Amino acid sequence: MRSASGTCLSGWSEAYGASILHEFRFAGFRSAGNLVLTLQRPSVGVTFRNPSKVLPYESALREAGLEPVRITPQTDAAMHDLGGLLLTGGTDVSPARYGQSRDPSTEEPDPSRDELEATLLEQALREQLPVLAICRGMQLFNVVRGGTLIQNLKTAINHTQKPMPDWEAGRHPAAHSVQVRTNTALASIIGPGEHAVNSRHHQGVDQIGRGMVAAARSSDGIVEALEAPDHPFAIAVQWHPEDRIHVNPADRRLFEAFACAVQTIRTR
Questions:
Q1: Closest CA to 243 of 178, 189, 169, 176
Q2: Which residue among the candidates 58, 172, 240, 260 is catalytic per the annotation?
Q3: Residue 250: helix, strand or coil by DSSP?
């Protein structure tokens, strides 16, 4: 990541992040002789297909000081007036997008969602807007950059943790650990070394896309995070940080750093 992403990624600290996080812009206007202050949170696009799955992402964004704007394949969407893009989890990316035939384990493709997210991602990258990609979002990011996927993981690690009905929002348990590389943007946010994460994917990154680097891997060698060093803020993780923001400070800091990057871009 270039240092132009602002101070979000350089010498990150919770204290500094919090000060940026709450530095919202107030617009004043007079009505009936009274001064009214309106709080304007930065808005970010959130792509999804299933409305029942989007709530944890929205909650995590709002806790970080951002206002989510829902974007679905049925929405006429563009990045105009949005400060960033969050690509969420979901069904498998169509193998046709990375030149493979469909494995029997691969889910039914969702071409309209693939096209929507690829278009928005390319626009966000072109306009230098912050991007946070999660699970399917990371895989789609890799594919858009010309990378490929492993359609069915076969390792000793449990990458397909199944959520239970009694798990509390924001407090899901970890499934395994990952190793975050030093000297990466991700390490500057959550710290290098070992981190416990949850895991809900049966596919993974194979060939890494152009301009991307692996920022974290699990002990079986599977890529667990990617980032684009040529972009102010473009980070992708294979796990679901939105589901652990209340039990894992690292996952919370990831959303705070995203918010910081959005705010920095907005106030240039």
A1: 169
A2: 240
A3: helix
Q: Which of 159, 242, 256, 260 is catalytic?
A: 242
Q: Which one-letter amino acid corresponds to residue 102?
A: R
Q: Which domains does the chain have, with CATH numbers?
A: 3-11+42-266 (3.40.50.880)
> Is 224 considered catalytic here?
no
Catalytic entry in 58, 135, 195, 227: 135
Length of the chain: 268
Residues near 91 by beta carbon (within 8 Å), at least 6 away in sequence: 49, 107, 108, 109, 110, 113, 136
135 catalytically annotated: yes
CA distances from 8 to 118, 230, 261, 265 (A): 26, 16, 6, 11
Q: Which amino acid is at 141?
A: F
Q: Which amino acid is at 124?
A: A
Distance CA 209, CA 137 (A): 14
Query: pTM (2 decimals)?
Result: 0.85
pLDDT digits (tens, 9 = 90+) for 71-114: 999 987 788 889 999 999 999 999 999 999 999 999 999 999 99
Nearest partner of 1 among 143, 128, 89, judged by Cα = 128
**Can 108 be counted among the known catalytic residues?**
no
Question: Tokens in use for 10?
Answer: 């350089």
